[in-house]
Amino acid sequence: MDLATLSGIILGLVLIIGSIALQGSLGSFVSTSSILIVLGGTISATLINFNLSQVVGSVKVANVALLNSKHEEPKDVIDNIVKFAEKARREGLLALEAEAELLDDDFMKKGVELIVDGTDAELVREILETELSFLEERHRTGASLFENMGAYAPAFGMIGTLIGLILMLGSLDDPESIGPGMATALITTLYGSFMANLFFIPLAGKLKLRSADEILNKQLVIEGILSIQAGENPRIVAEKMKAFLSPTSRRTFDKDDEDE
């Protein structure tokens, strides 16, 4: 799993559970019925809002984004494209065909194969940008799913609290049961807020960041591939791709090149 994600989850659990343990018994905060109401209600509402294929697809996207700790940096993408540009300038576009077979990045591989096949530049851009737009839409759906779960969880927590209050009011003839009954009713709201703010909403945010990074890399590939096809100087190819980076990233990129 991504180290920052794992660290955040563990730190949040340790601090919250530790704070509870310092003030009282952890057993007072355990309620199976509350978990069933919040988690079951959240999952059910999500399945109603999204179709099954979107839910399954979003889970896969989340697994790739959160469990895969390896993340390709823009510098790596630019370096690879520049190497292709240098080879194409020396040996021609056909020399890239064998190199493309060794690529792990299917998007870049497709781009190289298209230009090797002599596909028109506008058609290459159209094909790659269409694939990129569908990728972006899948990522947007995944983030939206977790954002919705972040909204549903507190709502079902409140529903659970109302259920608990109704049950408690039905036994007002026993004053000693009011305190424990009120505590049990409020636990459901606690669970809903806890799940939303420590898991669902942060996961949606992480997916958006990962999506933005991947889209940037894909845009670099498109620009680089088209520059190679146009026969541009490898140095110009690199400069065109660096234009996509922030000034800070560009300075870091140039410094790394100088160190090498």
Polypeptide structure, described:
- Helix content is 82%, strand content 0%.
- The chain contains 10 helices and no strands.
- Helix 6 runs parallel beside helix 8.
- It has one domain.
- The chain has 260 residues and is mainly α.
- The model has no long low-confidence stretch (mean pLDDT 87).
Label this structure with key terms.
mainly alpha, 10 helices, 0% strand, elongated
Short synopsis of the structure:
With about 260 residues, this protein is an all-alpha fold. It has one domain.
Number of strands: 0
Mean pLDDT over all positions: 87
Radius of gyration: 26 Å
Q: What global shape is seen? A: elongated
| Structural classification | mainly alpha
Q: Terminal Cα separation, in Å? A: 30 Å
Q: Give the amount of beta strand, in percent.
A: under 5%
Counting H and I runs of at least 4 residues, what is the number of helices? 10
Give the SSE string.
HHHHHHHHHH
Residue stretches low in confidence (pLDDT < 50, at least 5 long) are none
User: Percentage of helical residues?
Assistant: over 70%
The major pleated sheet works out as:
none
* Whole-number tally of structural domains: 1
